[in-house]
């Protein structure tokens, strides 16, 4: 008989989150799906499943998260896997992005992930097991013009996850960082990427980046969301999963470029770097 597991997925109403919910339910597992619009999620599913608990949740609000975790834990008795998937992009130059726009992006992409993680960890610690899967990006490893703020949120996710893995390993809890490249979802054209209110005309290169991401890239991304969701689930089920997993040929390319750049810079400047030591 199948050992049914319980998964909590944030940002579950579209994109990778929705595909994860579909595949997990098809596998016969329980799913606690948090989203800003649970009706949008249930409307996107072909059949009602009693193993789905869809909850309207504001991941920037700790009380809202605590309620979702409590209700889900009461319903299914445990939470075995947490997939921190919720997030959105802010596409604009550093000068263009206001303090409130930057704060809002960090509130969802970073503090929302922290809020949910803190809420679920006591359940996993008590069980002596569990896995936390944080959906980062290859742009948590490398940054580019126009994406500075979004990349900063994903760099933060990488650092948090790396430290968390060391902190909770003694409790039998695993951490996985998923680093996708461009995936063919509606992320670029569904309101999941926003632009700053204050556009500075002089940044013509960033304006062209915005145009490409709005007009040229949607529908051409190399990554298949169905395959992405399947790999995430299979990786989470491994006894010894990797801490980091790049997804997509473009992700491998970007990460390799960054690694090579770092190694070259270290080697070229090694004499200066070590010269500041006491003799």
Please tell me about this protein's structure.
With 279 residues, the chain is an alpha/beta fold. The chain has a single domain, classed as Rossmann fold, CATH 3.40.50. It is 48% helix and 15% strand. It is built from 9 helices and 9 strands. The chain has helices at residues 15-26, 38-44, 62-76, 99-127, 148-168, 204-216, 225-236, 249-268, 270-274, and strands at residues 6-10, 30-35, 52-56, 81-84, 89-90, 130-135, 173-180, 193-194, 244-247. Strands 3-2-1-4-6-7-9 form a 7-stranded parallel β-sheet, sandwiched between helices. Strands 5-8 form a two-stranded parallel sheet. The longest helix has 29 residues, at 99-127. The protein starts with 5 loop residues before the first strand and ends in a 5-residue tail after the last helix. The model has no long low-confidence stretch (mean pLDDT 95).
Give the secondary structure arrangement, pairings included.
Elements (H helix, E strand, L loop, with lengths): L5 E5 L4 H12 L3 E6 L2 H7 L7 E5 L5 H15 L4 E4 L4 E2 L8 H29 L2 E6 L12 H21 L4 E8 L12 E2 L9 H13 L8 H12 L7 E4 L1 H20 L1 H5 L5
Parallel strand pairs: 1-2, 1-4, 2-3, 4-6, 5-8, 6-7, 7-9
Helix pairs in contact: 1-7, 3-4, 4-5
CATH level 1 class label: Alpha Beta
Structural class: alpha/beta
β-strand percent reads: 15-25%
Separation of termini?
A: 66 Å
């Amino acid at each position: 008989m199948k050992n049914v597991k319980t998964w909590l997925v944030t940002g579950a109403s579209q994109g990778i989150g929705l595909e994860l919910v579909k595949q997990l339910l098809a596998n016969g597992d329980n799913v606690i799906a948090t989203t800003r619009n649970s009706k949008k999620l249930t409307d996107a599913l072909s059949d009602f499943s009693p193993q789905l608990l869809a909850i309207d949740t504001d991941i920037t609000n700790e009380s809202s998260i605590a309620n979702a975790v409590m209700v889900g834990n009461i319903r299914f008795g445990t939470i075995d896997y947490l997939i921190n998937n919720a997030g959105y992009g802010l596409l604009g130059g550093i000068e263009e992005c206001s303090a409130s726009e930057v704060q809002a992006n960090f509130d969802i992409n970073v503090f929302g992930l922290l809020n949910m993680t803190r809420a679920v960890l006591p359940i996993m610690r008590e069980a002596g097991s569990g896995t936390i899967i944080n959906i980062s990006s290859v742009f948590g490893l490398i940054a580019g013009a126009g994406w500075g703020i979004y990349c900063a949120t994903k760099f933060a996710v990488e650092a948090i996850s790396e430290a968390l893995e060391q902190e909770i390993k003694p409790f039998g809890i695993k951490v996985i960082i998923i680093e996708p490249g461009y995936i063919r979802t509606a992320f670029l054209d569904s309101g999941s990427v926003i632009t700053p209110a204050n556009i500075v005309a002089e940044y013509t290169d960033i304006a062209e980046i915005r145009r490409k991401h709005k007009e040229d890239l949607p529908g051409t991304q190399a990554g298949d969301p169905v395959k992405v969701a399947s790999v995430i689930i299979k990786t989470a089920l491994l006894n010894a999963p990797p801490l980091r997993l790049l997804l997509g040929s473009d992700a491998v390319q970007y990460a390799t470029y960054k690694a090579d750049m770092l190694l070259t810079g270290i080697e070229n400047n090694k004499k200066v770097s070590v010269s500041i030591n006491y003799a």
